[in-house]
Amino acid sequence: MELWATAQKELVESNDLSRDYGSLSFDVLQKIGVTPMIQVTEKGKIIDYRNIEWNSQEDPDSLELYAILAKLKKENDPIPIVYKDIINQNLYYGDSLLLVKLQYYPLALLLIILLFGGLLYFFFQTNKAAEQNRLWAGMAKETAHQIGTPLSSLMGWIDLLKEQNIAPASIEEMQKDIERLEVITERFSKVGSLPELELKDLVQITKDTIRYLQQRTGKQIQWDVELPKKEILLPLNASLLSWTMENLVKNGLDSMKGIGRLQLQLLEFDNEVHFLVKDEGSGIAPENLKKIFQPGFTTKTRGWGLGLSLAHRIIREYHNGSIKVKESKLGKGTTFEIILPK
After folding, report:
1. Is residue 319 assigned to a domain?
2. Which of 85, 93, 122, 266 has its CA 20 to 30 A from that of 339?
3. Which helix (H) or strand (E) segment is 42 a member of?
4. Which structural domain range is residue 15 located in?
């Protein structure tokens, strides 16, 4: 633009001195390129324009041209074209399309880099989660296998003691514990693979789970249970769902250290069913709320930190539901909520 303004000045000077202007000025004036420009007098009147784009096929009217001039004034400072008292003009110009694109290329490149980085992070996290899932599934299957070996032997010993009619009452209790071990083995084996879902009565599963836990907790626990009177049939894996309920209840009992009130609710809605476990324990620190479902995370001195992680997997991946901490206050207790779709 400065070269163009200089060429204009040389043109005026050459004409004033009655001699031809140089070839450089001629080339500059003829090959202005694609930069939009408008030349005006000292009073702001448009006397020439180049490379101006408008919608119509005809030349732009004065209103449209002056509107473009106002836009160019905001883009760049004008270049004065002054020669003695003969010429006093200003050259306003804008940015070419190529220059506009070049201004946005770094942003586009940055967005591409961020997108590529995001894809790498997503791939890494997905691969890490898949690896963890394979690890937990392998551990679950191996645990089921290890428990199954001595369990078969114990069942044989129980049959032998029954034949000899030795302490029938004790043998009956031992039989119950062995049946319980069989249930635990079944649960671990199903965690390692996608379990089958069958239409089951959620109310009855909840009752059986609570009854089992009540028989094995102290008398200082006050149970407050609210269940519907009718059946609620849902596609479930009874063994794994019961395990999840047990985990939530046991966490509440541990939090209350075996003393306090435990509230259990089963609420039915149009499209889903909610199961709530509320304890009066120590509560969960706010900074730990996002970590409690991560494998290996625990605030207890004992334990592997797998209970809530497995519960999360059972509810979300196997039953297409959700599990969350609905409410937790330090020193006042925690409420867990399971939501199952109908």
Report:
1. yes
2. 122
3. none
4. 2-95
